[in-house]
Sequence to fold (140 residues):
Amino acid sequence: MYMAWNDADNVGVPELDLQHQRIFNVLLSLNANPDAATDSELVADALDELTRYGDAHFRAEEALLRAERYPHLDEQLEGHRRFRRVVAELCFATSAGAGDVPALLRTFLETWWEEHIQGADRRYAAFLRERTPAGRLPAS
Ligand SMILES: [Fe+2]
Ligand SMILES: [Fe+2]
Fold:
């Protein structure tokens, strides 16, 4: 599956866009190494990055959306919970030596990209654009 960063994927908040690009880079590195094994450094690094991404990114995103009184915060919280759950399950599967972790991880990230970053996150980006007067950055 060919994937490239698209300007339409930007939510317009530099900190959050950088974090989104980091998860995108994890997906690119997995796609570039389709034969990586479950116990490879690549997969360990990917899971580590995603665990930290989960903490740092979701905390920043949720704090901003709360401050901006985003009306669909629940959709965000539910999506973020699911991400954390799946990543934790894949960490567990890795320590249990399951062979299909790299493929599961790629499929999960592609779906996450399409459904969450290009879906739910784009919805809040549109809300912030409408709500934030030009020249003023959203509260953070
Ligand atoms: Fe989100
Ligand atoms: Fe996000």
